[in-house]
Write a structure and sequence with these properties.
The chain is an alpha+beta fold. The protein has helices at about 50-60, 65-85, 125-130; strands at about 5-10, 15-20, 25-35, 40, 90-95, 100-105, 135-140, 145-150. The longest helix is centred in the middle third of the chain and has 19 residues, at about 65-85. Residues about 1-35 have low confidence and may be disordered.
Length: about 160
């Protein structure tokens, strides 16, 4: 599927939307933001989560829950790299005073929340999302999936 993205100014210069449009001019997703949204194409390799964290850390440096944001971001990007496959696209922005992050990949397989053994080194990513985010979910399309989460200023 060929998708085009456009940043569209709405009623004021402080409000814009990131709009995804497919070849038939159908709007697939609208991300409203009070500031410019981050949009990164991510390579499916082990250095991608670190590079993505750096970009988000610089952009949201003053956010009171930066550590929670970066941990959740790292988990979701790592899952896309390990289990999803290309193309991987990471988007982030501020919506209604919450940071919203969306990580899309080329797999339609949905992540499964597990109850890992106490000493297991893996399997805790979705448990972390449950505890650290205000909301999270998965949207599946014929072309892949998007795992998204939101972090508010206060406690989860």
């Amino acid at each position: 599927m060929n998708i085009q993205y456009a940043i569209v100014s709405l009623s004021s210069p402080q409000t814009s939307s990131l709009v995804a449009i497919d070849r038939q001019d159908r709007v697939l997703r609208v991300m409203r933001s009070g500031s410019h949204a981050i949009q990164l194409g991510v390579r499916p390799d082990s250095s991608s989560p670190r590079a993505t964290r750096r970009t988000f850390a610089a952009y949201f440096a003053d956010h009171p829950r930066l550590d929670d944001l970066l941990l959740c971001l790292s988990e979701v990007v790592t899952n896309a790299v390990l289990h999803g496959g290309p193309p991987i696209l990471v988007r982030g922005g501020v919506i209604d005073l919450k940071i919203r992050v969306e990580v899309s990949d080329g797999s339609t397989a949905t992540p499964v929340q597990r109850r890992p053994h106490r000493y297991s080194p893996t399997g805790r990513g979705l448990v972390l999302l449950d505890h650290l985010t205000s909301a999270w979910g998965v949207d599946v399309t014929g072309e892949g999936k998007t795992v998204w989460f939101e972090i508010a200023d206060g406690l989860p």
